[in-house]
């Protein structure tokens, strides 16, 4: 099995910026030092091709990102200052998601050490998301007739409004989204199946709801699952308010990954959000997702 990363994932941001731009490199180091992954199982991802990106995004938006003409208000909505790295990172993240999905179709499981950029809409970015990697993947796989049906399981604490806005009209795509009702984004776009929690549900309630709704994903009989495994439901997360423990997150991951593995459904993972302070707690939670994956798939 192969998993994908890039040094371009690591954002160089102004001091005291609230986004932990170095967490991607910390995760790679953690996975290697703890022998969860090896250098042989990691591969550099290439940027996505423009024709793949514009299936999900308006070309005017892409051009403005690339040449820096994007309105500063639009960049504030994304949450980053513009720099040449912003479009490069967006294309690289989309490319990593495409490679991971293709690898998953071949070996059953893959992922990248970034991604899950579910707040990006067709014509704007938001919530630290520039391009929508899962929308790009889903549309390419279906339109290229690589597969017929895609399921997105989005377990980030924030609702994937961009996923829903871009993909909700496609009957060949099923989106399960579990999120905090009062959390960002404040305008929600309905997915196929939304599960909205009030603040602080904790492990037991969260896992009970997940067990109830996962059968609807399996009944959809997807040819691939794109798993947004955000760890911002962690009790230590600054933006979460979901109060899941490390063990609760690992049990969450096991329900999804064992469900895919048992049914022979390929799964491609994006790491999604994580904003704990210190950031090492987020990195530990990300690494736990890969520990569960290793236990389930035996790579």
Question: Overview of this structure, please?
Answer:
With 299 residues, this protein is of the alpha/beta class. It has a single domain (3-297), classed as Histone deacetylase domain (Arginase, Chain A, 3-Layer(aba) Sandwich), CATH 3.40.800.20. The chain is 43% helix and 12% strand. It contains ten helices and eight strands. The chain has helices at 23-33, 50-53, 59-67, 72-78, 85-107, 133-143, 161-167, 202-220, 246-263, 279-297, and strands at 3-5, 42-44, 109-112, 150-154, 173-180, 193-197, 224-228, 267-270. An eight-stranded parallel sheet has the order 2-1-3-8-7-4-5-6, sandwiched between helices. Helix 6 (133-143) runs parallel beside helix 7 (161-167) and helix 9 (246-263) runs parallel beside helix 10. The radius of gyration is 17 Å and the shape is globular. The N and C termini lie close together (7 Å). The mean pLDDT is 97.
- E-strand count: 8
CATH 4th-level superfamily: Histone deacetylase domain
Poorly predicted ranges: none
- One letter per element, helices H and strands E, the order comes to EHEHHHHEHEHEEHEHEH
Assign the CATH class: Alpha Beta
Briefly note the structural class of the backbone: alpha/beta
How many domains? 1
How far apart the termini lie comes to 7 Å
CATH third-tier fold name: Arginase, Chain A
The number of distinct helices, counting runs of at least 4 residues, comes to 10
